[in-house]
Amino acid sequence: MHPPSASHFLPDLTGEFIDDGSLELLCLLGSGAYGKVYKALDITSPPHDLAYYAVKQMRRYEPHTREAQIQENELLVHRMVSDHPRVVTFHHHFFTEEFVFVVLELCTGGDFFNAMVDRKVYRGNPALIKRAFGELLDAVEFIHRNSVYHRDIKPENILCNSAGTDIRLADFGLSTQVAVSTQFGCGSRFYMSPESFDREHNACYSARHSDLWALSVIFTNMISCRHPWYSADLSDPGFAAFRADSDYLLKALNITRPANALLKQCFHMNPLRRPTLAQFRQAVDAMESFSLEDKPLPVPLPRLPTPRFPVVASMSLEWAVAPPSGTGECEKTPKPSFPIHMPQPLKFTPFVLGSSSALALPSVAGPPASPPPSPLLLAPVRLVVRPERHVRVSMCSIPSLALDAAGGAVRLPALPKRAYLRHVRPSCAVPVTSANVNTKPTTEYRTVASNARPTLPTRRQFLTARRILQVKE
């Protein structure tokens, strides 16, 4: 059983007036190892703009004792870094015969532990984690830049608003201005680095890197709502499992691989191998998610592969409903033009000349056949296709019967020079492998292929075949 802390013996001053009667202690907000914190009202403030503060009560020690020196150091260091917006503002302090009172900025949202564990505001919200953790990094970066090292960074010493943002770093009771410390055991075991309490193998340790270790544990708390281990020594089963298997956190905390890779660097046994604050911030900002339970971000649709010979058709459609019996007019509803890019991930009906299963097209040899009656009619349809090469041309969402009803309203695409043999003479099958008319054709050229690009005849072959046909006629 742990012995009671020093704050346990402090009396409850709720309802009392302090600081020459200017501050009324309204309620107790919390207590720590060395003091209690109250919500106080400044009774000298105007009624329409009441001012509230947080007042920390600590026991007053005899001068020149170790406890008195720790108190003086806390007040001095906190006042040094109080100007930053990510540090709790230090207003003033005063003494009585028994106690020391520190008047601080009041943060109504509570501490980080309450937001993270009780209310779980960060769970499954990577955007909020990035914002809140970035504000915490701002605070630590500022105090380090002023040669102040906290040595007791934990969720209970971090304050925030009800949304989990507007971070404030508080409680500088164990802070130091010495970069290389010989005071072991400072802080909470959950957040202490392995070198900060192992005095048997270390004569000293880096206070800066000890703060970075605590930040890494807090980051683990935020993304998983769990502690990675109780203490960072081999007697702890969790830490021993991590030392034996560097991917232990990936399996135990259900985090993503990028988050696991970052934590492996942050929890390196060599402090010099751990990332700096700037590297830590950059790695966190680059991640899209931290836990497998995070809300999935919208995934962009995959891009379709660009065809080797792209074809873009400009199509203008006007649809009409069949008029009722006995009337001769119908109302037309125009539709806007839209591009058709090939290929499309839709079901196409290909134009294949000479195929009974394909969509019928008007032939150049004669008028089109009369279509069977259909309740849906298609107003005049214009299809203009300008292919760069001879590729498959398809249409979708156009009924076959309605297209037949349009008669000669469909114009065939303009073809390149080597792609119009069958188009000019659709009744002639011209072989491309032999110029002998008596030889049975082995390859027939088709204007539109339904599957693959056909083998095109050269211009010399075309001219030779045309001369043979002229002689035959």
UniProtKB/TrEMBL annotation:
Question: Which is one GO molecular function term here?
Answer: ATP binding
Q: Pfam families under this entry?
A: Pkinase
Q: Which GO terms describe its cellular component?
A: nucleus
What region holds the Protein kinase domain? 23-290
The record, for InterPro entries, names: Kinase-like_dom_sf (IPR011009), Prot_kinase_dom (IPR000719), Protein_kinase_ATP_BS (IPR017441), Ser/Thr_kinase_AS (IPR008271)
The protein's UniProt keywords, in alphabetical order, are:
ATP-binding, Kinase, Nucleotide-binding, Serine/threonine-protein kinase, Transferase
A GO biological process of this protein is: mitotic DNA damage checkpoint signaling
Asked if the Swiss-Prot or TrEMBL record annotates the protein with the keyword Glycosyltransferase, the reply is no
State where ATP binds. Answer: K56
In the record, the note on similarity to other proteins reads: Belongs to the protein kinase superfamily.
Protein name, per record: Protein kinase domain-containing protein
Please give the organism.
Answer: Mycena venus
**Lineage of the native species?**
Eukaryota, Fungi, Dikarya, Basidiomycota, Agaricomycotina
